[in-house]
Design goal:
By secondary structure, the protein is an alpha/beta fold. It has helices at residues 2-12, 105-108, 130-155, 161-171, 178-195, 201-210, 219-228, 232-236, 242-252, 255-262, 271-288, 293-306, 310-324, 365-381, 396-405, 420-424, 454-465; strands spanning 19-26, 34-40, 48-55, 61-68, 72-78, 81-87, 92-96, 116-119, 121-122, 336-338, 344-346, 354-360, 385-391, 411-414, 432-436, 442-444. α9 (242-252) packs across α12 and α12 (293-306) runs antiparallel to α13.
Length: 470
């Protein structure tokens, strides 16, 4: 009943202070484009949700109005940029977009490409404005951090960190903005933790986390939190109480016992903070494989049901969604995509047969190389397995000619490089492979490539299924 009442209050807006904010400006270089701006739903999973869209007209003008409840870090990912700024409820922002710069092909197909992080400019800022304060602080702080990083790490407090901290606190004595004060506080705490080589980390946690309010949407707070509690459960497993943690999660799935175990640590006496640590531990454990995913999921479900904090329900759901997305044994995400002549094909059309699905681009060397290997496997197994290549080529006509000229006769479809399908299937390198069973379930995710002996795997599957061998 409690959760239902909360849901109704949220839907009706009771108890929520929702106000409208506006973003506008002119950016001739971006004329005709539409830029999507997001926020992070939480800063453990970093799942993003759309906040607003800038539809830029033919002369470069844009304007948008949207509802906002609290100060929010919003960002757009376009071209080479991760462009961000902080938006406050009931405020107007005339923003200045960074110079137009599209990704080059080498960037698009480089899995290690890092977007350039830029704080979006805002016209007519005052010295006391939140964005001005953060821009100025980040410059001053980052310059010191980058220049002194090795010295701080090796010499610690002897590098004069305390002097710098005193200087930076004095520099912003005039700033009364509470959000900025907390932002500065946790950036400085991170510097202290680095300078002391984490020797006093437990005391720092008690001083900065245990006794303070959790700032779920403050980047400085959550960056320090994520750094301190990175892979927390995996590290705990090799501690003296590691066996007990393993038993609590693997056999009991008991959130009550997990709380009791972690309560032994004085810095985790705050239940809300302790629960956030548990969420972080579960989230990282799904990736690290030292704890089985089903017990982790059951423990997460127990936390979701028992928590008193709505934000923790949201984070729990996000962790579960991430863990189950593309997991072996789950249904392959559906799609509807055009083939070379524009006919729409659905993934569900291929139910009843095994599907070897891959995402590729004909302009990349690796994709070209592996197409020849796919061709050989396709010719031997096409009666038992459907082969589908989803191409992200910008020039579809040229891609079709490439496939035809090389006599690649299996099914190939098209999508954009940044489409929902690419994001859903978490494609970051080309080619990427998945193997789907006749029921539409992910049998191997991701699947081995042809060069990684997929043919042997496919042969064993067909042999085990009782089908006639090719």
């Amino acid at each position: 009943m409690r959760s239902l009442i909360i849901y109704i209050l949220v839907v009706l807006g009771i108890g929520c202070s929702v106000q409208a904010s506006e973003v506008f400006g002119t950016a001739k270089e971006y004329a005709g484009n539409e830029l999507i701006f997001y926020r992070y739903n939480d800063r453990i999973t970093f799942i993003k949700e759309e906040m607003f869209r800038l539809t830029i007209d033919s002369i470069g003008k844009f304007w948008v109005k949207f509802d906002l409840e609290e100060i929010t870090y919003v960002f757009g990912e376009f071209g080479i940029y991760h462009a961000y700024f902080f938006v406050e409820p009931d405020k107007e922002y005339e923003i200045i977009l960074p110079p137009f710069a599209e990704k080059e092909a080498k960037d698009i197909f480089n899995p290690f490409f890092m977007s350039e992080k830029v704080h979006i400019g805002i016209k007519n800022m005052k010295k006391t404005d939140l964005n001005y304060l953060i821009i100025d602080f980040d410059y001053y702080y980052s310059r010191y951090h980058d220049l002194k990083l090795l010295d701080i790490y090796s010499l610690g407090l002897k590098t004069g960190v305390d002097t710098f901290i005193n200087e930076i606190n004095k520099r912003y004595e005039y700033a009364d903005d509470s959000y900025f004060k907390e932002y500065k506080k946790y950036r400085v705490a991170a510097l202290k933790n680095l300078a002391t080589q984490k020797q006093y980390e437990q005391a720092l946690i008690f001083a900065y986390f245990t006794k303070d309010t959790i700032l779920y949407d403050n980047p400085a707070y959550m960056d320090l939190f994520n750094n301190i509690y990175s892979n927390y459960f995996d590290k705990y497993l090799i501690s003296k109480n590691g066996a007990y943690l393993f038993a609590v999660i693997n056999y009991g799935h008991s959130i009550t016992r997990l709380h009791k175990l972690l309560l032994q640590h004085f810095e985790l006496k705050n239940k809300q903070f302790r629960e956030l640590v548990i969420l972080k531990g579960i989230n990282d454990s799904f990736a690290n494989k030292n704890l089985s995913w089903l017990p982790l999921l059951l423990t997460l479900d127990s936390l979701y049901i028992s928590t008193d904090y709505q934000k923790h329900q949201t984070i729990s759901q996000n962790i579960a969604d991430n863990a189950l997305s593309l997991a072996k044994g789950t249904i392959a995400p559906p799609f509807e995509l055009p083939d070379s002549v524009g006919n729409i094909k659905k993934l569900t059309n291929y139910r009843g047969k095994y599907v070897y699905l891959n995402f590729a681009n004909t302009t990349t060397y690796t994709s070209q190389n592996e197409f020849e290997l796919i061709k050989n496997i396709y010719l031997r197994y096409k009666a038992y397995c459907v082969f589908i290549t989803v191409l992200t080529d910008e020039n579809r006509q040229k891609a079709t000619k490439f496939m035809t000229d090389n006599k690649y006769e299996w099914e190939y479809l098209f999508t954009e490089i940044n489409s929902d399908v690419i994001n859903t299937y978490k494609v970051s390198t080309y080619p990427t492979y998945y193997f789907i069973d006749p029921n539409g379930t992910l049998l191997v995710s991701p699947a081995p490539s042809p060069i990684d002996n997929f043919e042997t795997y496919l042969f064993n599957i067909i042999e085990g299924s009782g089908l006639k061998k090719p």
